[in-house]
Design goal:
By secondary structure, the protein is mainly α. Helices cover about 60% and strands about 0% of the residues.
Length: about 140
């Protein structure tokens, strides 16, 4: 993995952990990395699926892929015509506010927001809990 991609993955992991109230900075595997380019540029260039694959276990990634596939087919421009739900995770404007985040038009920040929401709502069940819920209710 490229050094700048590693930085993006680390940055996203810290953001998700902090949004869940975890202290990712104390993780034993934490290794500070020096970005090759600014964070914003890395986030715009990173592939959301690659970042998610690095953050999640294989099983969690499979569940997350199925969930996001049903919600938006990984389209960060997806819009729900009947609500304010938008983006890859189809999160509502109010959900972003509750997470302390702003809606972004970029794929990686949308993926981070979806994982933060899933973490808060489904806890240890994570993406697989969200996927099981979606299969029963058609929403997560």
């Amino acid at each position: 993995m490229r050094q700048d991609t590693k930085f993006v993955v680390r940055f996203v992991a810290v953001a998700v952990s902090l949004s869940l109230g975890l202290d990712a900075l104390d993780a034993p595997t934490a290794t500070p990395l020096t970005p090759v380019v600014p964070v914003r540029q890395n986030l715009m260039q990173a592939d959301a699926r690659d970042v998610a694959r690095e953050l999640l276990t294989t099983k969690q990634f499979k569940c997350f892929t199925q969930l996001i596939g049903k919600e938006s087919a990984w389209n960060e421009k997806a819009q729900n015509p009947t609500s304010t739900a938008a983006g890859m995770g189809q999160l509502l404007e109010g959900t972003y506010r509750n997470l302390g985040m702003k809606h972004s038009l970029e794929a990686v920040p949308q993926m981070v927001a979806a994982l933060a929401y899933i973490g808060r709502r489904y806890g240890a069940a994570g993406p697989c809990g969200a996927w099981r819920h979606w299969q029963v209710k058609n929403w997560y």
